[in-house]
Amino acid sequence: MSNVSISKATFDRKASVCLKGIAIILMMFHHNFRDETLFKSYTISFVPFSEAHVVAFAYACKICVSLFAFITGYGLYINYRESSMNATKWIIHRYIKTFSGYWFVWICSAVLCQLINGRTTSILFRDGKASGIVYTVIDFLGLAKLFSTPSLNGTWWYMSAAAVFILLIPLLYLVKDDLWLALIGAVVFIRIIHNGNYFPGGNSVYAFLTPFILGSIFARYSCFEKLYKLTSGNKILKACKATLEILLIVFLFMMYEKVPMESFWEFHFCIFPLVVILFCVEFVIPLKPINIVLAFFGKHSMNVFLIHTFFLGNNLSNFTYSWGHFILITFVLLIISTVTSIIIDFLKKIVHYPYCIKWILNHSWNFSETPSVK
Predict the structure, then answer these.
(1) What letter would DSSP give residue 3?
(2) Bridge-partner residues for 45, per DSSP?
(3) What SS3 state is found at 262?
(4) What is the pTM of this model?
(5) What is the pLDDT of residues 190-213, one digit of tens each?
(6) What phi and psi values does residue 203 have, to the nearest 5 degrees?
């Protein structure tokens, strides 16, 4: 990753990988310290901050999911726009490419969990063999949250959201000139399907539709490029812009816990994350020493997301929290998960898994090659 080069004029693939790196680091903080009950049995130092400040920060780090949803909306929209496939074939290919990494981790996790403590059968086959087979297939496909069935790992609920995102992209492209209306429609839709309860829940399949659609909007209208041009070539204006965004981030962070999630969750999952994204993409990610590190963790973000909560469960949490300081604890969890990710990628190469997925993509169902009208 030493040759990372980020353009300040656009949100390119390398910049998106770096943003994933930021998101996965925020996720480590969130899952370790978002609530005092997670670490009340351990002696932890929060120097130079107070415990309350760290918990507040970790709670706000929930925006990591919004960052992933935004990146997904932005990337999928561009991918679909540039694809020559029709909608059906694009959905199938994109689903296979997106979920292939998940499938490998799922198989490894299912085998290891069963060998260690019988967790796989105790979770998936708790209602009998017939139901267990159905639960296994659904969880393997990443649709457990969508069908409200058991899953080996609760964090994997996001895979159901990812499947919904893939299905939505062709529909969003059909209304590409009215994407802002689609954003408003998503908010109304969420209210309706939750029977009037405005907040869909922090792990709802539909909770992050707004940042996802917002990512598509930014791709459709080249928003990053237009925003860059506002201060392009003027160092004073750029400095003022950076200062304003920092002050805005601080203000929005202070309001994060004060704004009722139940009545204005778009603030938490869409508005605040967007300001963070705008600042990071223009003023953090282009910094060479930083983007090399972020790109490294971003490259492994998918695997780290899928496996890190296994290290927070059962007796393994004793090890992660034993490091004493909140920064060390977060860093240790990130490093352990990343090393495991490297091992997973190595195993994939040994068994020629990437080749198998490529073969499946090249020999998938023979749908018409006629491209959609784009």
Answers:
(1) T
(2) 325
(3) coil
(4) 0.93
(5) 877 776 666 778 888 888 999 999
(6) -125, 30
